[in-house]
Design brief:
Elements (H helix, E strand, L loop, with lengths): L23 H4 L2 H19 L9 H9 L5 E2 L3 E6 L7 E6 L2 E8 L4 H17 L11 E2 L1 E6 L11 E6 L17 E5 L2 E9 L4 H15 L5 E10 L9 E8 L3
Parallel strand pairs: 1-5
Antiparallel strand pairs: 2-3, 3-9, 4-7, 4-8, 6-7, 6-10, 9-11, 10-11
Length: 250
Amino acid sequence: MARIGLEDLEGLGEESTAGGGEDDDEEDSDEGRERARLFAHWEAVASTHRVSLPRDMAGPILQMTRHSQAPEAVPFVTLSQQVKCEEAAYEERRYPAGKWACVTKEEPMYEQSISMSFMKLMRYICKDNSVGCYLGMTVPVLNEIHLTKEGTGLEREVITGYYLPGQFQQNPPVPTDPEIHIIERSPLRVLTRVFYGMTTEETILREISLFWELLGSTDTVLRGTYIVASYENPSVPRRRNEIWFICRAE
């Protein structure tokens, strides 16, 4: 499955999942029970990604649940669209320069890398930053990937990026985690195509192949480096994702 995202928490208010292992005094409070319920849900999601959920994620999970308003969209301009039919639709976009908080992981599985990176970014978003407050969620979260030389698989290195909300673009809060780096991306022009469902190594490779079939022979985009943009939660059967082909500099 794909990354553990903010939207995993939506709709949990009516659930009655038990446990969480919090201290007795905390479990006796409404907040403690809510924290335990949410943690149990996230722990189950993490296990499907073959990732263990650290106990210190309980606080960020609860905080992001309480700030579950519509996330801010990363700004872009649509340059062109190809919409002959839904299956063959794609568009060209330009994203402006901007500051991103990024984590690089090289776990055995793609799903593990993006899940572990996003947990780090969650802590940064919630409190582990120089201003000590919740920063706000943005979408999409980007995962930069590289094909192996043979082109039949993914390199283990995955860079997961969170776009800093507009109010923090000029002066990004400093992460307390040394594995999180604030970088400024140059303007980016991409060809992007929507796909739905899980984002595993297998599905990503399939989507890259399908997009190349649509484009045909072209040297206007890079080969070997791609971006997977994630918008929705892994529990949504037809959740929205995009594959981005990076256009060569003009």
